[in-house]
Design brief:
- The protein is an alpha/beta fold.
- It has twelve helices and 20 strands.
- The strands form five sheets. Strands 1, 2, 5, 6, 7, 8, 19 and 20 form an eight-stranded mixed β-sheet that branches. It has a five-stranded parallel β-sheet with strand order 9-18-10-11-14.
- The chain is globular, with a radius of gyration of 22 Å.
- GO terms for molecular function: oxidoreductase activity.
- InterPro entries: FAD/NAD-bd_sf, FAD/NAD-binding_dom.
- This is NAD(P)-binding domain-containing protein.
Length: 388
C-alpha cells in the first residue's frame, strides 16, 4: 500500500509531490502519481508549445520548489542568460521547464509515475482504492486529486458540428492532435481575445498566415489573471470570513481577469496589427457553414470567409462530466457547494485522507487556486496538516 496517490501529474500534482518529498512527509517509493501522459508536465509542455509561449505570466517566485528563490538561485548557478523577463522576473518558458525537469529528476518522480486514467475511487476501511481504466488497482492511505479541466474544451455553439465534421478546417487550439501547418491555408481566423488568442494570432502570423483575430469584447489588459492581493491577507482575510459559498463563487468570478492578456503580449500584438500582419475584428459570430472548402462565418451584420478557423476559446469547468468524481461524491456523501465544487477543510481535505488542489480547491484557496501560486498554497497547507 502506498502512502500517497496523486491524481494528475501536471503543475498542481508535481508541486504537491515536490513539497511532500522535500518536507520529508513521504518517500518517492511510497507515492504513486497517476496521469494519462507518459511523463510529468506533458500536457503543460504540449499546450505552451502549441501557442508558442515565450514567458510565463506569473513571477519568478512561483514554481515547483518550496523555496521561492530556488529558481533564481538555479539560474545563477547554471549561468542561464535571459532566464527572466521584465520587472516581475517572469520565467522564460524553456528555462522554467528546465528547472522543473531538474527538480523532477532530483526527486526521481519517474519512480512514482503511473500512466493511466482513473476509473473509480473507493474507500475500504482506512485506505483508498483507485481503479484505473486499464484494470489496475492501487491502494493508498491518502489520495490527492490535483487534475483539472484541461481536457474539457470550450467550443462555441456555432462551431461544434463543424469541428466534428471538418476537423481540418475548424480546430480547437488545445485539441490532442496537432494541426499540420503545411495544410493550413493563408487566411486564418483566431476566435478568442484572451492571452491564448493573442499568442495564437502571433504564432500563425509568424507561420506566414494572414490572421484575423475575432473578439466579442474589447481586449482586456491585466498583468496577472487575478490581482496580487489575492495571494495574501489583503483580500484573503475577508474571503475566509465568508461562509456563503455562492458569495465565494461570485467573488472568484469577479476577481479573475478571464480572457485578459498582459501588457507585453498586448504590445506585441499591436505591433503585428500596425504591420498589417494581424487584423482585429470585434464582432459576435452567430453561425458558420462550409462553402467550397472555406469556412464562412456570419455575425448579425457581417460575413467573413477563411481557409481555417482556430478556436482559442479555453476550457469549460463542468464537474458533472467527471464520472468517477461524481460516483465518489455519491458513495462517500461528499459535501459540495451549489456549483458542484468541493467544500473542504482549511487543509483541503474533502473527507479523511482525500485531498484536492487546483480548480477543485478554489472555494477554499480562492481565485489563484488554478495557478502555480495556488498549487504552492495548496501544497503548503497539505504538508502542514500531515506534518503536525
Amino acid at each position: 500500500m502506498k502512502e500517497w496517490i496523486i491524481i494528475g501529474g501536471g503543475i498542481q500534482g508535481c508541486t504537491l509531490a515536490t513539497y511532500l518529498l522535500e518536507h520529508g512527509c513521504t518517500k518517492v517509493e511510497d507515492m504513486q502519481i497517476i496521469d494519462p501522459y507518459r511523463e510529468p508536465l506533458a500536457q503543460w509542455k504540449t499546450y505552451t508549445k502549441r501557442i508558442a509561449m515565450s514567458n510565463l505570466r506569473s513571477p519568478a517566485v512561483h514554481h515547483l520548489a518550496p523555496n521561492p528563490y530556488h529558481i533564481t538561485q538555479f539560474a545563477k548557478k547554471n549561468q542561464w542568460n535571459n532566464a527572466f523577463y521584465g520587472y516581475y522576473k517572469k520565467p522564460n518558458l524553456e528555462f522554467f521547464n528546465h528547472h522543473s525537469e531538474d527538480i523532477i529528476e532530483q526527486l526521481q518522480l519517474h519512480l512514482a509515475w503511473k500512466q493511466g486514467r482513473v476509473e473509480d475511487i473507493e474507500r475500504h476501511n482506512d485506505q483508498w482504492i483507485v481503479s484505473l481504466e486499464s484494470g489496475d488497482k492501487i491502494k493508498a492511505k491518502n489520495v490527492a486529486i490535483t487534475a483539472g479541466f484541461t481536457e474539457q474544451l470550450l467550443v462555441p455553439e456555432w462551431a461544434g458540428e463543424l469541428k466534428q465534421n471538418y476537423p481540418h478546417l475548424v480546430w480547437h487550439i488545445f485539441e490532442k492532435e496537432e494541426w499540420d501547418h503545411a495544410e493550413i491555408g493563408g487566411n486564418v481566423a483566431v476566435i478568442g481575445g484572451g492571452i491564448t488568442g493573442a499568442h495564437a494570432a502571433i504564432k500563425w502570423s509568424n507561420l506566414g498566415k494572414q490572421v484575423t483575430l475575432l473578439i466579442k469584447n474589447p481586449l482586456k489588459i491585466h498583468e496577472f489573471d487575478s490581482d496580487p492581493g489575492w495571494l495574501g491577507p489583503k483580500n484573503m482575510t475577508k474571503y475566509r470570513k465568508i461562509d456563503d459559498y455562492k458569495q465565494r463563487r461570485t467573488l472568484i468570478k469577479q476577481a479573475r481577469h478571464k480572457g485578459s492578456l498582459p501588457p507585453n503580449i498586448y504590445q506585441k500584438l499591436m505591433k503585428y496589427v500596425q504591420q498589417g500582419k494581424v487584423t482585429i475584428v470585434e464582432d459576435t459570430i452567430q453561425s458558420a457553414i462550409i462553402k467550397q472548402q472555406q469556412v464562412q462565418l456570419q455575425s448579425e451584420s457581417n460575413s467573413f470567409q477563411f481557409n481555417q478557423v482556430i478556436l482559442a476559446t479555453g476550457f469549460t469547468s463542468n464537474i458533472q462530466e467527471i464520472n468517477w468524481l461524481q460516483r465518489i461524491i455519491k458513495s462517500e456523501q461528499l459535501t459540495c457547494a451549489h456549483c458542484g465544487f468541493p467544500i473542504v477543510t482549511r487543509d483541503l481535505q474533502w473527507t479523511k485522507g482525500l485531498y484536492v488542489t487546483g480548480a477543485l480547491a478554489e472555494l477554499e484557496i480562492g481565485p489563484t487556486a488554478r495557478n502555480i501560486s495556488g498549487a504552492r498554497t495548496a501544497a503548503e497547507r497539505i504538508v502542514k496538516s500531515v506534518s503536525t
